[in-house]
Specification:
alpha/beta, Helicase, Ruva Protein, domain 3, Dna Topoisomerase Vi A Subunit, Chain: A, domain 2, 2 domains, five-stranded mixed sheet, 7 strands
Length: 208
Amino acid sequence: MNIDKYPSRLLENAVNEFSKLPGIGRKSALRLVLHLLRQNPEQVEAFGHSLIQLRKEIKHCKVCHNISDSDICQICSNPAKNNSVVCVVENIRDVMSIENTQQYNGLYHVLGGIISPMDGIGPSDLEIESLVKRVEKGEIVEVILALSTTMEGDTTNFYIFRKLKDFEVKLTTLARGVSIGDELEYTDEITLGRSLLHRVPYESSVGR
């Protein structure tokens, strides 16, 4: 069947919506929609309800800006976590990647992106000032800059370093077990875990 000619407007509308998802072309979208049509109505309703509920009820932690079901996320509210160490990451996927290493027991600060002039993203578009305010309280002894080792990631790291360098806080970054140009979510857990354990002072990493 030519996927540009659909036997049903409803089918075409569903395919159009699925094809808006990242990495989903129209052929893949059609395959997914046809799969849903083969499921019981109850299963499809549960699938749709979970997405609607996610969008309506999801929150961002008031402390670290991670995605959460409540005002304070499970990580920030966990008494077993070391609240004197904060790991700065780009997004929730990086939090999940680091948590999966089981090599880090501190808290996080999710920026919501990285500085990228080409994409129109500046420091004011990110959660950088809220990080500064957390450090100002004096309870944090170490900030780990764990952004992707891309040009944009390095630019963001340097900007944060300049904002925090006058505070009594240790600034570190991942050891270069994470290759230059890599994004954290695509780094294997062993490499990422070692990079966390062998992190280095930020100033000594500049220019390497």
